[in-house]
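Lecture 7 notes: from sequence to structure.
We start with the chain below.
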Amino acid sequence: MTPSERITTEVTSWDGVSAGPGSRGEFAFKLGRRELGHLHGDHAAHFFFPRETWRELYDEGRIAHHPVFPDREGPAARRIEGEADVDDVIALMRLNYEEALARGIR
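Predicted structure tokens for the same chain:
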């Protein structure tokens, strides 16, 4: 499986998650109206995190600044170069999924 196929298979197996193409060429994963993250092919994933979570993930080296919003904390990017990256993209989507569930989003 390609990285995007593997990520899609896992993330869409979670209760309530839908996936599909967005308006800017991305492939987005949503729980209700909340986007958990999106892919740009097999090479990059983008997310949005609360500032405190963003800072922790950035300090751990798990995310980088989003290329469209390089000076903002919240929007995030993750390169996909190998299996470890695929696993972490899934984990980052799961983090957003769990946070959305905790807020009552379905």
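Points to note: Residues 83-102 form the longest helix (20 residues). The mean pLDDT is 96.
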